[in-house]
Design a protein that fits this description.
This protein is of the alpha/beta class. The protein is built from ten helices and ten strands. The strands form two sheets. A six-stranded mixed β-sheet has the order 1-2-3-5-7-10, sandwiched between helices. β2, α1 and β3 form a beta-alpha-beta unit. The radius of gyration is 19 Å and the shape is globular.
Length: 270
């Protein structure tokens, strides 16, 4: 697919997707939404890609929906048929909606938040597996200031990330928080100087790509994202089933071999 509002590059096992509307603070349009989903799904389908980095061009990560599109948004936009896709019966339906599809990707997604992450920009960051932030990053849910509501599952995921009290605060006030406060409440895992953000994201992606089994990563990512819908007993039973298959895998054999032979791992994902 030819992209017009983002760039996508693949360097070895790492795909880097960059929202590319810097003059509009990478605000989402329908075109950018569609391109982003295609880019993530294409990267996830590539067996050579073992980590995806998502970031933004310029001074923002994503300022939310483009206000020019929001101004003329019809009330029934949320129900448009072209937003509805056939479900993949092998993946949880909860993670196949308009914005919640990040967890359905087997490949881990690292969100490198280089600047403002507001509204849907914050939603996308929350659905990512890792969140690294520049010291210049700022966050806001923004919805209440637009006369909107907690969109696209943020009322479900935000309390799970930052706790109920912080989620109520961020959603109802729509106040901005800086990277340090985001770090303190657990919204991001690391805060870095601006020039160190992408190198840190790349180092993490490289670690995921070279030091651990991609088969294990894919299974564990699914286990983590599915766990909120299951009881402890169901999670344990699923783990026991997955263990049966893991100990028969090539990656398990390689995991033992590279440790005993004191050499770098050569995982194949099989």
């Amino acid at each position: 697919m030819d992209f017009t509002q983002l760039t996508c590059s693949i360097d070895g096992p790492v795909a880097t997707i960059c929202l590319n509307r810097p003059d509009r603070m990478n605000a989402l349009t329908q075109v950018l939404e569609n391109e982003l989903r295609a880019a993530i799904e294409d990267a996830d389908a590539d067996p050579a890609v073992r980590a995806i980095i998502l970031t933004g061009a310029g001074r923002a990560f994503c300022a939310g929906m483009d206000m020019e599109e929001l101004e003329v948004l019809p009330p029934d936009d949320i129900h448009r048929q072209d937003w509805m896709r056939p479900y993949d019966m092998n993946r949880r339906a909860d993670y196949q909606t308009r914005y919640s599809y990040f967890p359905a990707a087997r490949t881990p997604i690292i969100c490198a938040i280089n600047g403002a992450a507001a509204g849907l920009g914050m939603v996308m960051a929350l659905y990512s597996d890792f969140r690294l932030a520049s010291e210049k990053a700022v966050f806001a849910t923004a919805f209440a200031k637009r006369g909107l509501i907690a969109e696209h599952g943020i009322a479900w995921i935000l309390p799970r990330v930052v706790g109920h009290a912080n989620a109520i605060d961020l959603l109802l006030t729509s106040r901005k928080i800086d990277a340090a406060e985001a770090m303190a409440m657990g919204l991001v895992s690391r805060v870095l100087p601006p020039d160190d953000l992408m190198p840190a994201a790349l180092a993490l992606a490289t670690q995921l790509a070279t030091e651990v089994s991609p088969r294990s990563v894919g299974v564990m990512k699914r286990q983590i994202w599915d766990a909120p819908f299951r009881s402890l007993g169901e999670v344990i039973a699923e783990a026991n089933r997955e263990m049966y298959f893991s100990i028969q895998s090539d990656d398990f054999k390689e995991g033992v071999a590279h440790f005993l032979e004191r050499r770098p791992a050569r995982f194949t994902g099989q």
